[in-house]
Amino acid sequence: MQQQSKKVWSSGLLLVFFGMIATGKSYLASAWAQQYGLPYYNSDRVRKELAGITPQTSQQAGVDQGIYTPAFSRRTYDALLDRADTHFREDAQACVVLDGSYQSARERELLRDRFSGRVDVLFVHCTCSEDVVKERLKQRAMDSHAVSDGRWEIYLAQRKRFQPVTDLEQEQVIELDTNAPLQQLLMQVGQHIQERGL
After folding, report:
1. Is residue 4 part of a domain?
2. How many domains does the chain have?
3. Terminal C-alpha separation, the chain
4. What is the rounded CA–CA span in Å between residue 94 and residue 65?
5. Per mean pLDDT, which range of 3-17, 35-49, 61-75 is the poorest?
6. Distance from C-alpha of 96 to C-alpha of 137, rounded to nearest angstrom
7. Which one in 21, 41, 170, 180 has a CA-CA gap of 20 to 30 Å to 27?
8. Cα 99 from Cα 92, distance rounded (Å)
9. Is residue 75 part of a domain?
10. Other Cβ atoms closer than 10 A to 154
């Protein structure tokens, strides 16, 4: 069994990995959660759980269709908030990891409002070049265990909608180019948390 790393946060912390599809947020978020043995909630997995299907069940509906309608997305992101809330009610000093697109300023505001004054909320904005996105989507299409249904046309639609992260103060967000070694990225997240005294 892999030994868990010593925690780097000092109080309750909600760590939100977000960005467009195929920007590496899930890879990084799950690695961070595994490194510290933390509760981790991925929007794709929660969405499919709510739909009553397995995580690997492919859903190739178009933009805003099937389980990706605005109403179903609302259910999904509310469920993410509720699950994080449950952990903090049990342990106010916990660190909970959320993983989703959080592409609108309003969605990010709802999250901050829910936990304001209770725990620190830190966003990790994952980005990478479009060439890297294309390659990752190509690899994902060949992976029968992939959970995300992201495709290039979905990426293009999301790119039009994704609102700039100007709603967050500098100390509330970490900007990461995920086209870097995993261990380097994990170290960067930990350093940011320690530097900000969270």
Report:
1. no
2. 1
3. 28
4. 36
5. 61-75
6. 27
7. 170
8. 20
9. yes
10. 19
Q: Which residue has 């994902």 as its token pair?
A: 140
Residue 7 covered by a domain: no
Among the residue ranges 43-57, 134-148, 162-176, 181-195, the one predicted with the least confidence is 134-148
Give the domain extent around 58: 13-195
The string of DSSP letters for 40-109 reads: EEEHHHHHHHHHTS-TT------TT-GGGSHHHHHHHHHHHHHHHHHHHHH-TT-EEEEES---SHHHHH
Give me the CATH number covering residue 101.
3.40.50.300
Q: For residue 3, is pLDDT > 70?
A: no
User: 91: exposed, middle or buried (C-beta count within 10 Å: 0-12, 13-18, 19+)?
Assistant: exposed
The pLDDT assigned to 1 comes to: 40
In the block, residue with structure tokens 């709802």: 110
Does a structural domain hold residue 6? no
The label of the residue with tokens 């859903």 reads 59
- Stated pTM of the model: 0.90
